[in-house]
């Protein structure tokens, strides 16, 4: 017998993890996306996403990364291969506070001086005095490979996939979705995980969400970069971040300070910051890409029932510029909050 039914709206990393979580509990799951599956237009689609605790604002944030790594390990074990590459990580700013949180959580890390920094980062030209904070336990999640494998995984577990099927707010409120001529679907529960598109699906949430565009540059770089750590808050402006070119990916850089909500992107400023920080003579620029995530004013994620749906529809949004790595935890939260209430209503 099939279990209760779930519709997940959005096949980014949060929708995929949520679908997998409910499938494992025996639910009958359908996943719809406005685009193809996998969807290269989603924020979750890129060669890699960083996972590290170097941006932690509390000891609890560090523990969250620990638990997220545990969640990802479960996925690798299910897939039979890992899409995580441990590169180590280097923070270039705000070391004092971060080392307190990391130390309190028992996360391995050490302060490194300018000489060690130069040994860790190939072709370093300029970085402020004071060195950095290094941890061996940081790395990259090979995001597009994960998304591709998760679509296959959930399909193999019986998930019904609906590509190119934008879901409308009216359908969510009604709790009924047309599948084809004469065929309708009324799931027990709907989870909206529409990323930066959430304000268009649940219009009431639009004022609480801000879309942030970020442009990344991709380079082919000397092989020494394959052994480099990921970089966070780096360079003379303290705002560069970089993912090293592991597992056949390219070196990727962006500057968080240049991500102006809704504003135009200043490519020249990013080029200048990179050239100020690194000797780039042997680098070859390959391409740039722009990507959007959504955040709330206070940075807190939204996980709540959609008003007027009697708790039969929930939305998860505002997952921020660090939201890929935490998807295993988000799926668990959705599972704990949403399914309980819906099962109680049944
Ligand atoms: C440049 C950049 C760098 C980042 N770096 C990191 C990082 O290093 N580490 C990290 O952890 N995170 C990082 N993030 C954040 C992370 O990528 C996002 O938080 C995460 O991918 C969001 O996943 P999601 O599933 O919520 O949304 P998305 O991946 O955007 O997926 C949402 C999906 O919903 C679909 N959708 C929208 N509307 C509808 C509708 N009406 N009907 C059906 N489907 C719909 C969309 O087509 C899309 O496929 C970065 C983000 C950006 C932009």
What does this protein structure show overall?
With 346 residues, this protein is an alpha/beta fold. The chain has 2 domains: 166 residues, FAD/NAD(P)-binding domain, CATH 3.50.50.60; 134 residues, D-Amino Acid Oxidase, Chain A, domain 2 (2-Layer Sandwich), CATH 3.30.9. 30% of the residues lie in helices and 26% in strands. It has 9 helices and 19 strands. It has an 8-stranded mixed beta sheet. Strands 9-2-1-12-19-18 form a 6-stranded mixed beta sheet, with helices on one face. A hairpin with a 7-residue loop joins strand 18 and strand 19. Helix 1 runs parallel beside helix 5, helix 1 crosses helix 9 and helix 2 packs across helix 3. The longest helix is centred in the N-terminal third of the chain and has 21 residues. The protein starts with a strand and ends with a helix. The structure holds flavin-adenine dinucleotide. The site of flavin-adenine dinucleotide (FAD) has 37 residues, from helix 1, strand 3, strand 13 and strand 17.
């Amino acid at each position: 017998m099939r279990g209760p039914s779930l519709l997940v709206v959005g096949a980014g990393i949060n929708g995929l993890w949520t679908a997998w979580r409910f499938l494992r509990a025996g639910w009958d799951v359908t996943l719809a996306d406005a685009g193809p599956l996998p969807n290269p237009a989603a924020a979750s689609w890129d060669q890699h996403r960083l996972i590290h605790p170097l941006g932690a604002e509390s000891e609890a944030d560090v523990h969250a990364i620990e638990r997220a790594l545990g969640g990802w390990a479960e996925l690798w074990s299910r897939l039979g291969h890992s899409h995580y590459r441990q590169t180590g990580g280097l923070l270039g700013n705000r070391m004092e506070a971060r080392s307190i949180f990391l130390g309190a959580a028992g996360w391995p890390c050490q302060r490194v001086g300018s000489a060690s920094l130069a040994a860790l980062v190939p072709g370093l030209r300029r970085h402020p005095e004071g060195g950095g904070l290094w941890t061996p336990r940081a790395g990259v999640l090979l995001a597009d490979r994960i998304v591709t494998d998760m679509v296959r995984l959930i399909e193999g577990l019986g998930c019904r996939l609906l590509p190119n099927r934008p879901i409308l707010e009216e359908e969510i409120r009604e709790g009924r979705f047309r599948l084809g001529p004469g065929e309708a679907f009324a799931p027990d529960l709907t989870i909206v995980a529409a990323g930066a598109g959430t304000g268009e699906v649940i219009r009431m949430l639009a004022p609480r969400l801000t879309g942030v565009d970020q442009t990344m540059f991709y380079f082919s770089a000397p092989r020494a970069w394959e052994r480099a750590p990921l970089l966070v808050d780096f360079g003379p402006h303290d705002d560069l971040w970089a993912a090293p070119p592991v597992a056949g990916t390219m070196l990727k850089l962006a500057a968080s300070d240049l991500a102006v909500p809704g504003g135009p992107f200043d490519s020249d400023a990013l080029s200048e910051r990179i050239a100020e920080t690194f000797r780039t003579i042997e680098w070859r620029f390959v391409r740039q890409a722009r990507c959007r995530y959504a955040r709330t004013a206070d940075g807190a994620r939204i996980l709540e029932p959609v008003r007027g749906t009697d708790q039969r529809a929930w939305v998860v949004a505002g997952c921020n510029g660090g939201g890929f790595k935490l998807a295993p935890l988000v799926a668990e939260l959705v599972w704990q909050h949403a399914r309980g209430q819906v099962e109680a209503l049944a």
